[in-house]
Design brief:
By secondary structure, this protein is an alpha+beta fold. It folds into 2 domains: 1-36; 40-155, no CATH class. 44% of the residues lie in helices and 14% in strands. The protein has helices at 2-36, 63-74, 99-104, 138-141, 143-155, and strands at residues 44-45, 78-81, 87-92, 119-123, 127-132. Strand 2 (78-81) and strand 3 form a beta hairpin. Helix 1 (2-36) packs across helix 5. The termini are far apart.
Length: 159
């Protein structure tokens, strides 16, 4: 019986310490990412034509939203890649849309008409922030991707 207590008293602190280290690393990583979300100097200019897009593609029939998509492709576009390949995209706020108007397009099937895409996340006075969640099977379920999604949801108070 004494051996069992000794074993428990020896292993339990090691297991608890390992858990605290993992939690510290995850929380530390998230707090660093949270600080970066609105640090526009960290966003990299998108130069590849096939990576310059927003919205959900050719299925868009809302003309106002489609005009924004076309203007965004022609103008400056920047990207920040988070853990798990979760991307944030910044474009100018050409039409000076409010946050309410910009986010309203998420509920408009004529504007957001496909599952995969870059979705409205937040409107600022001079820029629009879009989110491109992780896609592609294994990426969606990765711990890094889930942590990035949770970070975005908490930071921007989604849901």
């Amino acid at each position: 019986m004494k051996k069992n207590y000794w074993l428990i008293l020896t292993i339990l602190p090691i297991v608890l310490l390992a858990g605290l280290i993992v939690e510290y690393l995850l929380i530390g990583k998230q707090s660093v990412d949270a600080v970066r979300l609105e640090d526009w100097s960290l966003y990299q200019t998108i130069t590849q034509p096939d990576d310059k897009w927003v919205g959900t593609g050719d299925c868009v029939t809302n003309l106002e939203f489609k005009n924004l998509m076309l203007l965004s492709v022609k103008g400056e576009m920047k990207k920040l890649v988070l853990s798990g390949n979760y991307k944030l995209i910044v474009t100018p706020n050409y039409f000076k849309w409010s946050n309410e108007k910009f986010l309203g397009y998420n509920n408009d099937s004529a504007a957001i008409c496909a599952v995969a895409g870059r979705y409205p996340l937040k409107a600022y006075e001079d820029k629009l922030l879009w989110s491109e969640p992780c896609t592609g099977g294994a990426l969606e379920s990765s711990i890094d991707c889930q942590n990035s999604e949770r970070l975005i949801d908490e930071y921007f108070k989604i849901n």
